[in-house]
Amino acid sequence: SSPHKAKKQQKTQSNTKQKMSYFSNASAPPAVAIPHDGSFTLPEAEVMSVEQVQANAPDRAQAIRTVEHMGMPRGLAEQFVQSARDFSYRFWIIDNSGSMGTNDGHRVVDGAGGRQGLVPCSRWEELGSAIGWHARLAVELGAWTEFRLLNQPGSGASQIVAVGTGDNAKSEDELRRIDRLVYSQPTGRTPLCAQIRAVTRQIQQRASELRATGTKACVVIASDGEATDGDIAAALRPLRDLPAWVVVRLCTDDDKVVQYWNEIDEDLELDMDVLDDLEGEAAEVNEAQPWLTYGAPLHRLREWGTCNKMFDLLDERPLAQHELPGFASLILGEAACDGLPHPSLDWAGFLKALDKAQASAKPVWDPARKRTRPWFSIRKLNKAHGGSCAVS
Predict the structure, then answer these.
(1) Model pLDDT for residues 36-90, shown as the tens digit of each residue
(2) H or E stretch including 101?
């Protein structure tokens, strides 16, 4: 069986106008070694208070414009900004083990004439593209985010880099350090448990502040394998009692690895979203929502972490007809979808209004069909939900 079906079965059971480079060759501060027993904790000053993090957030309207400028439709831009307020901290635990050098990855690139496409690359290059994008967004939104590698990198790169600290004078240096991290070569094993324990301690230190403000910490685990330093479920279990959300961003389609992580998801009953790579997740989502173009912008939001349960449902079951207006607004924006007819009362009118609303959003690259398409296929939406309803 395909890894996508295996995952489905498990689940069922500063506002800037200039593009910032992620790939400069500037020097970075000395790297910090982390003992594999998990005893390392960042100095307290490195982990900002929730109050400091919230003070760094830009004006909401300005923040939404910033995210739109990074290629997001209005609705997803609104969701990114909301998520930046829902999660006071983000921790990326990044697998840079030797297997991440395997050349079976893909990344979306821009071509001539505004065309886009998927090009082959290594797993590490694919993940590096995501890391660079999320780091830039964190800086733009003042969203405190810590990136930590499993293994000590070479080339003078830091093993831990914090960005989105709100210090504009240091933002370019933060991104240069991300450059170095991304351009280091993957090597070593997969000591995930030690890093999870280290992050858990940091969340425990700020748990009372998080609860007092109604916010959480988001832990993103990006890996292509199983932990080599212990029981991953035991390492994750303490997060069940903390204000935390976990995203597992898989960098492989290997059946064994997919099953490993989905069994953990099922057994722990943790707030957790397990994601395939873009192509894999698109294939799975399209089984339930064949009318949706599952493009990179939507995948980026789920990597970033979102409390909106609608996104977690996409690969679990077909959305109900009455859920469609709300989902459309999550993609296109509240303003664009204001006044959509209720689909249960006026299905043909709903489809016509939706098609008009999505004209304001740029088409998106469809990894499943290998071409640029609108977000919603009106024909397929009618086939899935309209029955014999005619679309004029």
Answers:
(1) 343 334 333 367 788 888 887 788 999 999 999 999 999 999 999 999 999 999 9
(2) none
Contact 59, 84 (CB under 8 A): no
What single-letter amino acid sits at 154? G
For 215, the token pair is 């916010």
Task: Give percent above pLDDT 70 in the chain.
Answer: 85
CA distances from 41 to 34, 245, 309 (A): 9, 20, 32
Give mean pLDDT, residues 284-296.
Answer: 97
Distance CA 227, CA 104 (A): 21
Nearest 5°: the CA angle 297, 302, 304 is 90
Instruction: Give whole-number Cα distances, 297 to 72, 161, 293, 368, in Å.
Output: 6, 24, 10, 14
pLDDT in tens, 321-361: 999 999 999 999 999 999 999 999 999 999 999 999 999 89
Degrees to nearest 5, angle at CA 347 with 341 and 352: 70
Q: How far apart are CA 244 and CA 272, in angstroms?
A: 9
Q: What is the pTM of this model?
A: 0.86
The DSSP secondary-structure symbol of 359 reads T
Cβ neighbors of 72 (< 8 A, separation 6 or more) are 80, 297, 300
Total number of residues shown for the chain: 392
Residue 119 gets which letter from DSSP?
Answer: E
Q: For residue 306, how far is the Cα from the chain centroid?
A: 8
Q: How far apart (Å, rounded) are the C-alpha atoms in residues 390 and 59?
A: 44
With H, G, I as helix, E, B as strand and everything else as coil, classify residue 160: strand
**Residues with Cβ within 8 Å of residue 11, at least 6 apart in sequence:** 262, 265, 266, 274, 315, 316
**Cα gap 89→205, rounded to integer Å:** 12
φ and ψ at 245, to 5 degrees? Answer: -125, 135
What six digits make up the tokens of 194?
């030690």
Distances in Å between the Cα of 91 and the Cα atoms of 113, 247, 257, 364 are 37, 10, 22, 28
CA 279, 285, 286, 290 dihedral sign is: negative
Residue 211 tokens, joined:
């609860």
| Strand order through the sheet with 272-275 | 160-163, 145-149, 87-94, 216-223, 244-250, 272-275
Q: How many CB atoms lie within 10 A of CB 323?
A: 13
